[in-house]
Amino acid sequence: MPEAAATETPAEANPVEEPAPEPKPKKGVIHQTTDEVVDAKEWLQKQGIEARDGKIEGVDPFSQAASGYFTLAARASTLGLQQQVQHYKALNDKFPSYKEFMQMMRDNRIEFTKLRWYEIYGYNEDTGKILVLVDTVAKEEGP
Known about the structure:
The chain is globular. A hairpin with a 4-residue loop joins strand 5 (about 120-125) and strand 6 (about 130-135). It is α+β, with helices and mostly antiparallel strands. The longest helix has about 30 residues, at about 60-90. Helix content is about 45%, strand content about 15%.
């Protein structure tokens, strides 16, 4: 047995470990989150930006299911922070400013469900609502 150890080359005795391969990025947005929220008052003044009304859209069962997923996921993920905004209003007799809202998100490490590429979350400090804004121009042009 000692003879076998003597015949090993130094490279075989100490094999070099290769780094683990990096995980591939996910292509879809399902189960991903974002903390990107824009000032809705500013964005609604831009051409082609609309606030989504929260209705499920689609012309066939598949597009309706996809629309339903994003609509309900957005509503559910913003629900907790929307309640915090209402509590802030009750205590301070005003809705938080956009800057205060973003600080609330950072302090509580809140992230929302990621939306489709042509949608973004917006906060309106006049109404205290978290909205889903749609860029209709980008939506029509495609990815």
